[in-house]
Hints:
Layout: E1 3-7, E2 11-12, E3 18-25, E4 33-39, E5 46-52, E6 59-60, E7 68-73, E8 78-83, E9 92-99, E10 113-114, E11 118-122
Parallel strand pairs: 2-11
Antiparallel strand pairs: 1-3, 3-8, 4-5, 4-9, 5-6, 7-8, 9-10, 9-11
Amino acid sequence: QVQLVESGGRLVQPGDSLRLSCAASGDFFRGARLGWFRQVPAKGREFVASIRWNGQSAEYLDSVRDRFTISKDDAQNTVYLQMNNLSPEDTAVYYCAATWANADYHNPGRYGLWGQGTQVTVSS
């Protein structure tokens, strides 16, 4: 079964760090790009970061570039999002998604497979 399963979201305090995981099952993802998006109520999904399946060519939302790191573990077929110095503005449901498009990676419409999402809440 081809699917993406996110985990790692929880309640943390401002300034804390958190690592999200996205486990990709199946051989379907070779050649894909995996992305992280986030969404708050009444707003669309916002691009956060993406990386090629081979672990190269990472891209980031400008506002998280200095705090978040996306990486891929080949042995585990898992993509991680390391988030440091979290603020309440980072509170959202975080989704992992896959695209086979060759451009426009910040556009959620280019991603054809999505996980179920994991809630990250940053609050004191």
